């Protein structure tokens, strides 16, 4: 199945590599652009069968590629989009999958491009209205929907509940009849199990409390 594609990728070498790969397997690349504004213009000028785009690109180097794709799917209902990302961006994946009822969309890590057969198969499935999501993204989306507090032991939940009350480590130790060293160990385990970013302890305590309140 030969498709008319638009490729949007700000890294020149990768963009040219994608174009070459797609043309070798029989597709026509009608435009290859390096920023989100050019992507929108190209789609409006010559609506393709499918867009292959990066998430992060100019003009702001934020999630411009993704936002442009979601907007284009609103402007052109049913427009298939395959997003390539360097990392697993759960919020980006969810926004893309929420567009157009999740039909005709794909979210893959860029490393999958090296598996040519899988990559070209993903393109054809998305173009046909299917949904393709990278296995790593699926794993993280499943984790996102799990109660993060399920990872904590009963003692760690107790410590977290007391942290939510605003207690200091010294107060925690006194209340639980344990040493401050033991309190520090429990808190460290809580931070690790909740996948909180390495930052100042105060900031991580706030994030831990927010996780507790959400659950």
From TrEMBL:
Signal peptide: none annotated. InterPro entries: CheY-like_superfamily, NreC/VraR/RcsB-like_REC, Sig_transdc_resp-reg_receiver, Tscrpt_reg_LuxR_C, WalR-like. Residues 145-210 form the HTH luxR-type domain. The modification 4-aspartylphosphate is found at residue 54. Pfam families: GerE, Response_reg. PANTHER family: TRANSCRIPTIONAL REGULATORY PROTEIN NARL-RELATED, TWO-COMPONENT RESPONSE REGULATOR. This is DNA-binding response regulator. It comes from Streptomyces actuosus. The lineage of its organism: Bacteria, Bacillati, Actinomycetota, Actinomycetes, Kitasatosporales.
């Amino acid at each position: 199945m030969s498709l008319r594609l638009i490729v949007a990728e700000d890294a020149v070498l990768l963009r040219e590599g994608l174009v070459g790969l797609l043309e070798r397997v029989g597709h026509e690349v009608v435009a290859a652009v390096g920023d989100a504004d050019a992507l929108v213009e190209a789609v409006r000028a010559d609506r393709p069968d499918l867009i292959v785009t990066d998430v992060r690109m100019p003009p702001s180097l934020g999630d411009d590629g993704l936002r442009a794709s979601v907007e284009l799917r609103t402007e052109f209902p049913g427009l298939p989009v395959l997003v390539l990302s360097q990392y697993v961006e759960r919020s980006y994946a969810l926004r893309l999958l929420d567009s157009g009822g999740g039909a005709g969309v794909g979210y893959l890590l860029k490393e999958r491009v090296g598996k040519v057969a899988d990559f070209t198969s993903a393109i054809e499935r998305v173009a046909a209205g299917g949904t393709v999501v990278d296995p790593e993204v699926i794993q993280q989306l499943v984790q996102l929907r799990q109660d993060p507090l399920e990872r904590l032991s009963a003692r760690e939940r107790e410590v977290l509940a007391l942290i939510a009350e605003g207690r200091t480590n010294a107060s925690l130790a006194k209340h639980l009849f344990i040493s401050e060293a033991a309190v520090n160990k429990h808190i460290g385990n809580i931070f690790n199990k909740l996948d909180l970013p390495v930052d100042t302890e105060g900031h991580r305590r706030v994030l831990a409390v927010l996780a507790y309140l959400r659950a």
